């Protein structure tokens, strides 16, 4: 390589990385290459739901590595079958397609919606509705499904077939069943879009419209699923039954795995040869998924989380009272957004200086994603740091 083309890293510069070189993680903590210890309330972007390197998942992966790493989906894989059984037993869906990531899971959902419409003879149904401020991935189709202009910049023309509507807008529900819609894809809580939660009445009305018209209701649970919001899946407290859901992130405790779950009559549209994945649901990924789900589904696990979740939310509300810079506290479970009047980056940087790692969700929202296994003592460390940052950035010192 000539001297004029040398770069500082051989890795493509697709990420605005924080100035941390991570070398070790355990539980709620992450260490860098200088030995600094951070309370990691990013959870690998809602991925390490059991914390870093959870013992039971590590043990399951280690055991599987002794036996079989990969054999392809040309053969039956027992651990894949077991994981699928767990996912369907604890949801309203019947069958599972495994892949490697959230974007791939959403790609599978988009494909099955198109195939189902064709199989049913709905030849005019060529559109999938998504919602403003959504995020569904960065592949060609999932980027087009994402209704955020900043994600589209530089990649036009986009994949056709997506129509965007305002989130939580009851008036726009009349536009769902227009004869062209094959499916609706949405997040119950928009993660990257600012921690915006679907209103219960709105979502129930949307679900009723979809059911009446045989339009697929597809819930993107990539960030909200696997216990993140206090239930195994975020759709469950709403009293609705989606036709398709997608999961990834927390499913493998950091080991790459994704899945698309569907009702049986819809899953039938994915006949042999219509879709596939070389690595999807391989024995090691499936072992990680089984161990993760068993922990989260164990007696009292999610119930025990709720006390800490409520305490964190209440404490954040009290911080809002002392800081005129905080506009809103929103979210559910351990998916929480702090909307601020200044830049979220200012809060994130100051918290990092105090060894607390959090994320943005847009320019004005600080996103807090503790592992579900975090302790009350760890939560207090975060809360105290947030109080200090609130005052440093312009809080009411009389609070």
Brief rundown of the structure:
This protein has 399 residues and is of the alpha/beta class.
What this model shows, in words?
The structure is a single chain. The chain has two domains: 55-296, Type I PLP-dependent aspartate aminotransferase-like (Major domain) (Aspartate Aminotransferase, domain 2), CATH 3.40.640.10; 301-368 and 388-392, Aspartate Aminotransferase, domain 1. It has twelve helices and 17 strands. It has helices at 43-46, 55-67, 78-89, 102-119, 140-145, 149-152, 200-213, 264-267, 283-296, 301-322, 344-353, 376-392, and strands at 22-26, 29-32, 37-40, 95-99, 127-131, 162-165, 181-186, 189-190, 196-197, 216-220, 244-247, 258-262, 326-332, 335-340, 356-357, 359-360, 365-368. The longest helix has 22 residues, at 301-322. The radius of gyration is 21 Å and the shape is globular.
Distinctive features:
399 residues; alpha/beta; Aspartate Aminotransferase, domain 2; Aspartate Aminotransferase, domain 1; 7-stranded mixed beta sheet; 35% helix
Give the uncertain stretches in residue-range form.
none
The appropriate CATH architecture of the largest domain is 3-Layer(aba) Sandwich
From the spread of the alpha carbons, the general shape counts as globular
Output the number of helix runs. 12
Number of DSSP E strands? 17
Number of domains: 2
Distance between the termini: 59 Å
Instruction: Fill in the CATH topology of the largest domain.
Output: Aspartate Aminotransferase, domain 2
Percent of residues in beta strands: 15-25%
User: Helix/strand/pairing class, anyone?
Assistant: alpha/beta
Which strand order do you get reading across the main beta sheet?
4-12-11-10-7-5-6
* Mean pLDDT score: 95
- Top CATH class of the largest domain: Alpha Beta
